[in-house]
Amino acid sequence: MTNEETAPGMGLEIVHVSNIIKRPLVDEAGERLGRVQDIVARMRDAPHPPVVGLVVKVEGRDLFVRISKIGSFDPGHIHFDGKRVDLRRFERRPGELLLGQDLLARHLINFVGGRLVRANEIELAKVDGTWEVIGVDPSSRPVLRRLMPHRLRWRTDIGSIVDWASVEPFVAHVPTARLHIPYRKFKKLHPAQIADLVEAASHEEGEEIIEAVGEDRELEADVFEELDVEHQLEFIRTRSDTEAARLLTSMAPDDAADLITAVDQERRLPILNALPDPQQRKVRSLLNYHPETAGGLMTTDFVGLPRETRIADALDAVRNSTAPPEALHVVFANDGGGHMVGWVSLIALLRADPTAQLESVISGDPPHVHPDWDLGATVRQMSDFNLTVAPVVDAEHDKILGVVTVDDVLELLLPSGWRRDFGTASPEE
Description:
Strands 3, 4, 5, 6, 7, 8 and 9 form a 7-stranded mixed beta sheet that branches. This protein has 3 domains: about 5-170, PRC-barrel domain (SH3 type barrels, Roll); about 185-295, Alpha Horseshoe (MgtE N-terminal fold), CATH 1.25.60.10; about 305-415, CBS-domain (Roll), CATH 3.10.580.10. The radius of gyration is 29 Å and the shape is elongated. It is of the alpha+beta class. Helix 5 (about 190-200) packs antiparallel against helix 6 (about 205-215) and helix 10 packs across helix 12. The protein has 18 helices and 20 strands. The protein starts with a strand and ends in an 8-residue tail after the last helix.
C-alpha cells in the first residue's frame, strides 16, 4: 500500500499540497528537522510544472530543500533523505511559485470553457520519477477534508481534478515571478467569454487579463466593449487620458460615445480631444443624442453605396469595411444625392449576378427609424419588421445617419448583470 493517493483511472501516485504544508520534516531516524512551509514549483512552457523543492522552517530560518532530498510523503510527516540540510536561507528565483502561498485557494483561469476556478486543492503526482503539478481540485471536497482529523485527510478520495495543462494562474501578486498569462491562450476564447472572466475576477486579476489581451489592440477593444459599464469605468480610472483615448479609438463609435458619457465629467473633453479626428467626429455626432434613443443607439459605421454600383464591387466594399460585423448584414443603396432608395441583404448579394447593378436587387422603401425615436418605438419597429439592422434616417433629408443593430437593443432590454445571473459557471466553483 502506498502512502500517496492513487487517482481513479489515472494510475498515478498523487498527494495533496495541503497534506504537505505545515507537516514536520523528519530524518531517517524519525527525528524532527523542521516544518514544511511551502512547495516550490518552476513555471515553464510545459503542461505540468515540475516541483523543485520545499521551503522548510528550521530554527526560525526558511531553508530550501531540494525535492531530490525528499524520500517520501507519509501521513503526518515528510521524510528527508539526505545527510544534512543546506542552511542557506531560501530565496525565490524568477519563474518560481510557492504553491501554497501563491496558488492555493486562489483563482485560476480554466481555458476549457473560459471560466474561473478556485484552487481549493493542488494535486501533485510522481511521473517518471519527477514530482509535477498535475491539476487543481475546485470542488468543495478539499475544504471539507481539511475539517477532518489528520489521519483521515490523507486517505480521502480525490475530487474532480482540472488538468493543469488547461489552466493558467494569476501571478501579478508575485513580484519575482516574471510570468505573464499567455495571449495565445486568450485567442481561443470569444471576447464575451474574456469579458466574463474579467467581471468575475478581482480588479488585479482583471488587469492581468486586460494586459494579456492588450497584445492585440483589436481584441482588447472587443473585450472592453463586452464589459459592463461599471468595469469599463474601473479600468478607465487607472489609465491616463491618452491611454483611455487609444482604447476608445478601437471601439465602435456608439460604444465609445456611451463610455465617454459615463466617465467623470472633468475627463470627458480631454479624452474626446485625444481621439483621432475621424473617430472624434463620429463620437461627437453621437453625443448629440440621448443614449436611449435610436440616435444614441446607432453606429455610424455601415455600408452605403450608389445604386449603380456593381454587385461585385458591393461585395468588395463589405469585405473591406471596418464596420461591426452585425452591421454588415445589409447593404444600403442611395441616389446621387445620398438619399436612401433601398437595401439588400448580404445573402441576396452573394446569390446575385456579380456583374449586375445594385439597383437590380434592392428592396425599395425599407422600414426605418428616426434618430429621436425612443427605445420602445425602435424596438417595436424592429420587431414588427423582423429587423436585425435598422437604418436611422434623417426625417428631413431622408439620409441614413447610421444603423441600430439588434445586439445593441438587447443590451438595453436585458437586466443589468444578466450575464452573471444567467452564466454557465460550474457548480463546483
